## 1
Amino acid sequence: MTRWGMVIDLGRCTGCAACEVACKSENNIATVSPDQADLGRAFAWMKVMTHVEGEFPNTTMRFVPRPCMHCDNPPCVQVCPVGATYINDEGIVGQIYARCIGCRYCANACPYTVKYFNWLVPEWPETARAYLNPDVSVRPKGVIEKCTFCHHRLQKAREDAQALGRELREEDYQPACAEVCPTGAIVFGDLDNPRHRVHALKDDPRAMRLMEDLGTEPKVYYLTPRD
């Protein structure tokens, strides 16, 4: 059985935020006004966090890309009263927007703060509407939205592979963030498939997961820097 996951090498990440920009463009993520951002209503399905190591003046700045962790034991799924948040048989934690009632239980249950409530009707300038991705819905006001590992790309890759009469390959399906990373810091694939790079990387001695002591079993691994 497939179990999609991600490994992010913190030693390679330069904090360029190309993954953030690609995620916003690929998934039709709305940009809010400065006033709304001040209220904490900005969206970032993939967000590059900063972490300072050491004490001044001997400090080092690290960058930590943070998508949804797509946990194997997701607390958000357990608390949703209407089944809008779910985990499929391939380990991707999805969101059914038509079911979501905006109670925000899932956002409160998520220890990684990767879920966002859509406070307003999303708006784009007329000149930007032509650039919206037709493969991804525009979420309405009053629902929770989050990273989906660009699940729509998986559907397209499967259809293309089926049309060619072959199985799905590792390079066929990549989320936008992994595809654009200029340093190759983000590696995506099937965690349980020995032929995929992430299978070996997740067992690297440098590999760790965020707050894994909570028992959420996140499927996003980080490789600590070598230095």
## 2
Amino acid sequence: MRTGRSPLLLPSRGAQVLSLAAERQLYVVGQDVQRFGEQARSTVDEALEIASGLNQGPLAPAIAGGWAALESLLTEARDPDEREKVVAASRAAALVACSWPRAELTALSYRIREVPGDALADKLAACASNRERSTLVAAELESRDGLPLVRSWRTGSDVASVFRMKALLADRRPVLGRVRGYLEVSLRRLYRCRNIVLHGGSTGGVALPAALRVTAPLVGAALDRIAHSHLVAGVPPLALASRAETALRMVDDDLGPGLCDLID
């Protein structure tokens, strides 16, 4: 009699901190109590450990850990009161909104590079960084109607991405503001679900799985930007969030950053 195999791990929820792999870094976990003179691990290390259950951990710890990671990095004592800890949702939304254009344009650039014999694919192959690739794709979208895309099961998703980027390039500040609003609403929902878990002691709410499914990639994207800035430039999370909010306010300003330079 044959018996089927049951996977022990749950499917990944899509929370990825790719900066760790890009910078060939590991975050520090399980370190003993610090003694005087020893090098303490960073708050980013601690937040990544707290959020480690986001991808494949049980529902309640994933929700609690995901929000705790954001709150630990993106709030401070000067925030008005405990209820305003939800301000972490606004700051994380600004980070993700700023990183969205370059991320989506970069993903498109790699799809275009798979098209054989296209001049744009050759130009992209000569680019040395994702910033250069995303800037080139943005310029192409502004100068012509479409992009050469390889046909595959992902074609529908790629076409939708092209339409999103064209809408953004045509009306930058309103679109980015609207996207940030969507992100903040989703992350505030994560905060409320965390309260249901920790303060209500309930893991059976019908909204919990859906909220985690939507917000896990968003928390991962915010932590990815924070980890990158921490590793590469030593920029504290709150300072990075402040830069993101300033960049969003200066979109379309003559002295403001380009869409692919909203946040480094």
## 3
Amino acid sequence: MLENKYKLDAHCQAILEEYRAHHQEFEEKTEKIRLMLKGVFEKAGLLVATIESRVKTEESLAGKLELKGAKYASLRDITDIIGMRVVTFYSDDVDKVASAVDRLFDVDWENSVDKRKLHEIDSFGYMSLHYICSMEGFPYRFEIQMRTVLQHAWANMNHDTGYKSGVEVPREYLRNLNRLAGMLELADEQFSRIRNELTDYRRRVQALVASGNLGEVPLDGDTFRSYLSLNPFQHLNKRIAAVNQAEIQEVNLMNFLSVFKFMGCKTLGDIEKMVKENADAAYQIACYQIGLTDLDIISSSLGPQDVCIAAILRSGVGKVGLKLLFDELNGPSEMNEAMAELLVEQTKDLSFMNKS
């Protein structure tokens, strides 16, 4: 028997020695459980902030045994030798994590606690969901805590300040702490609410885009992404590519969101109108650009770029407008003014420029 440096009685010392004998196994199981959780979250497409894990230290276990060792018949009765904590970004994701945990492990419902049901004014930092779990082939239970990032931050702040109850903090500070807890709890709720409302908005937008009611859809990041999924510039790009029998290299066109806003578009319908009105002119510009070359690959950005160029040239703002367009597309550069001037000169005799 090892030295009883913690001055425990014989029963508690036997539990401690069982812990020492299985410590390596606890470390291995902890890593296995962490990987199992990580795998099931990834499979479910559930993004979490972090998965923390630890094996209870010998000093911590000895302290627990010293205080209440008589209540434990063996090490198997201590449910937090292995501790896991899953921290989520949103409060409603806690329940999704809990569902995944329930599918992975056997949950001891009698000893599990949902501290979110507490309604004390200072309970925010302790509103974790605690599951006591077991797994096949491993005789020891383990604890999985689930909480949000804000709950986790608050709990850590409480730990650092030593704030655990109203008795420990002077009244003038306690009021401010409780106000802050209420603000964080409200923020937790609002983050989840905003995410759900954005999800609903995106679904409505996708339905509107799919229905073709583009004039009713305001231009923003979500709507433009849905619009691009319809390949709105594909027909023009194929027409341009046919000039040289070229291949089309697909690139991300999200950078054109700011370009179309620069062009004055407020809705997806405005973009559609611009494309329809300037497609032939854009084709003429592209033919001039690549018609006498042996270019056999074009970027999918060529179509929308030439639509914007055509719209500017047809509006009569010429070099100034093109320079601003190139600044928006490529970033400010001294070359943009030279490119704009050259393009005005090259396109002045194209048929679309000579229409009254």
## 4
Amino acid sequence: MSSFNNAGKLTPEDFDKYIFPYLGASNKNVLVGPKHGVDAAVVDLGDKLMVVAEDPTYGLPSLGFKKFGWAIVHICCSDVACLAAKPELMTICLLLPPETQKSVLQDVMTTMNTECKKLGVSLIGGHTGVIPGITFPLNGGCTVFGFTTKDKLIVPSGARVGDKVIVTKGAAVEAASILALQYPSGLEKKFGTDLVKNAQEMFYDMSVVKDAMVTREINGVSAMHDATEGGVLGGIYEVGNASNVGMKIYKDQIILTDEASKICDFFEIDPYYSISEGTLVITVSENAAEDVLKALKKEKINASIVGECVDKNQGMQLFETDRQIGTFRFPETDPFWAAYFKAIEYSQEIK
């Protein structure tokens, strides 16, 4: 049997073969279970729905421990928010390598406490312990619970033909910020300190909780999805695939910051397929699209209309201006990973 050689999520094919057939007993109260492009489950509790999502969060030495704590809360809450449920409860499994300083755990927990309070989330349990075999603190699994009602639920598989596609913040938010944090010296020599500092600050854009809480209030929104691995185009593909619709996307309408463009170019990766935690993909009826943009702008969240949902038979079309330049799909491997390992090598060479 072959091994898993690529970093990141399993491919859809591996998911279908090794995960989907082995889901235990069926339960009639599970309204949304495991599905490509859907990052949270929905359980019917009778008078309300419970939305549940789980995520690991990898720790990176370049982030520091406070950013690690921030990322745990916001990345894990984002998947629940994408289904229009307000995150309310959280459990966490924190794994620490041997000899970890107690001040490290203090930094992680105090930051998580602060961010949970900002979002109105209660940390209700989990597990924390020291475990051999890891070299940096790891969120082995954070579970977030949110609640909504059937009439308010929005699922990533709800996009409809004719809907407009809106993207917040733009491409490669996470890729650009992490690479700037990992290899600041080399990037500063190439692009200057201001660009690198701005890219590093993009780290705090790696959350769609606010984006989703604003968007869910607009009538006509049919789907929301966080563009994580696979980037903006990967996220749009997942929404289309899950919703059984095609997509007509204008690449030049997707926001691409100067920081993301230059850093991705430096590492020779495609920003439109690079991990972009914090970028929300939204589908909405044509007559409500401007209302979504206005609501986001009021909260100082940049967004743009990048295309529309079309009949499935038209496939996933990619345009620039009025010229079709090809098609797109979910990448087998997010290009960020190769760039990240390259950034580590560059950093070690400098040392």
